[in-house]
Here is the input.
Amino acid sequence: MLSTYAYPKYEYLRPPEQTGSEQKRYPVVVVGAGPVGLAAAIELAQSGVPVVVLDDDDTVSVGSRGVCYAKRALEVLDRIGLGQACVDKGVSWNVGRTFFNEQEVYNFNLRPQPDHKRPGMINLQQYYLEEFEVKRAQELPNLDLRFKNKVVSVKPQGDGATLQVETPDGIYTLETDWLVVADGARSGIRRMMNLDIDGKIFKDRFLIADVVMKADFPHERWFWFNPPFHPGQSVLLHRQADSVYRIDFQLGWDADPEEEKKPEKVIPRIKAMLGDAREFELEWVSVYTFQCRRMNAFTHGHVLFAGDAAHQVSPFGARGANSGIQDTDNLCWKLKLVIQGKAPSSLLDSYSEERVFAADENLLNSTRSTDFITPKSKTSLMFRNATLSLARDHAFARALVNSGRLSVPAILTESSLNTPDSDVFAGDMVPGAPMDDAPLRVGGQDVWLLDSVGKCFMVLLYVSDPARVSSELLNSFTALANGPLAPELVLVSANPGAAQPGFRVLEDQAGRFAERFDAKEGSVYLIRPDQHVAARWRAWDSAKVGAALARATCNLQ
Here is the structure.
C-alpha cells in the first residue's frame, strides 16, 4: 500500500457468456486495461465501435511506473476526454537541467514557442492515468470492461480470433472480428502466437525510489552525471503529484536487485543526495533492467499489437507510454474505417508501417541515450566526460549531451498515405507531420486548433473573407462530403466573419496558424483523423483533394 494513494478495487462481474445467454461475436476485443489498451478502447467506443476489454487484474498498476506524458500524448488524451484531468493532477514542466559533478552544463526547454494549449511534459503516476481511463471507459455504454478475465489461449482466424478466457467462474469462449493486444512487455498473447520480439537488453540496473517529501524544487527535470552523492553513476530526479519525487539511481550490472531494494540500502543513498536534514518517506521501490526491442510487424492478420506488447524502450526519454498512446491514435481511426467498410483492410498495413517507423526512431534515440548514460568502455566514458566538461561553455558540445532525448511525435514523411507536395511551402507542417497547435477564436470564444480538428477527415481552407468563398468551390466540396468518408470543410481566416450555413470558421486573429502552417490566401490542408497532415496545396482542386483522400485511406483503384 502507498501512503499517498488508495488503490481502487474494481468489481468482477460474471460475463454474459457464462450466464447462459446467447454467444456473441464482438467487433473488437482489447486485451490489457493499462494506459494503451484503455486509450484504444475509449477511442473506438466513443466513435461508435463496440469494444470488450479483458484484464486479468482488478485494480490499476502497482507503483508509479510510467511518469512522464509528453505534449503529443496529452493532445491525444484530450480527444478521449482525459487530457485536462491529467494536467490538473500532474506536475507540468518544460525545462530540463543536466549536471556534471556539481555544475550545470546544459539545459533545454521543451516548449520554446508560446501559444500552445499543453505543456511540453507532465509528470503523473501511471496509476492516476489508469484510474482516469477506467472512469471514462465506464461512462461509455458500448464499452464492456471486464476485470479478472485472463486470456489463456488465442486462436487467430482469417476473419478474426477466438479466445479462451479464464475467470473466477471458470473458462469461457469469446469471438472477435479484431483483436487489439496491449498486454504489456511480457505479452502472453505474443507468446501464445509464437511471435518474436528482437532487440537488445542493456547490462545495467537502475533503482527507482518514489519518495514523499516537502521540497520547493522547481518543476523541472534534473539529471546528474557523476554527482558527489553517487560517484561514478547517474541520477535522475522528477517531481510527481502528491509531493512524490521519483529518483532513479544507476547501480551497475553487478548490483543485486533484491538487496538494493531493501530500505537499509535505499535510505542512505537518498540521504546522501538530499542531506540528513531533509525529511522523507519511501513510497515505492523497484529495480529495473531496460531493453530496446520490437516485433517485426505490429499487424498479424486480424490481431493488432500496440504499446509495450509491440515495442519496448529504455525509460530515458519517456518514450514508452507516450509511443503506446500514439500507437492507438494511429490505429483506431483506421480500424474504425475498415470495420465500417469505408476502407480496405490493407489500410491497417499502414498502421504497422507507420508505427514501426516511429518505434525504430524511438529505439535509435533510446539506445543512443542509454549508451551515453551508461558507457560500456573506457573510450566511451572518456568521450562522454569530455563532452560534459565542454558543454558548459561550448554550444557544439551541448548538442552531444544526451541524458535522454525526450519523446517527440514521429513525423511520418515516408508514409504511403501521404500525398507529396506539388506546391512550395515553408515550415514544419509537411505531409506526415502531426499538427502544431494554435490559438483561435470561434463566435467570440477562445479555442485551440487541436480541439477543433480530428476524429474525422477534414479539409482546412485558409481565406481572408469567409463570406466570399465561391459557391463553385463549396459545391465541388459537397460532392466529396457526400461520399463514404464524409470529410468536413473548415474555413480558417485571420478576419472574423460568417461563412455560408453549414461551414465552420476558425478565426486566426493571432496569426499563429498562418505562421506555423505557412498559410496564404487559398491554401488547402487535408487533415487525417489523428491530426496528421495528409496533403496540402496552394489552391483548391477538388480532384486533387479527392485523390489525396483516397490515397490516405488506401481506396485508390
About this structure: The domain at 16-91+118-196+295-367 is CATH 3.50.50.60 (FAD/NAD(P)-binding domain). The first strand starts at residue 25 and ends at 31.
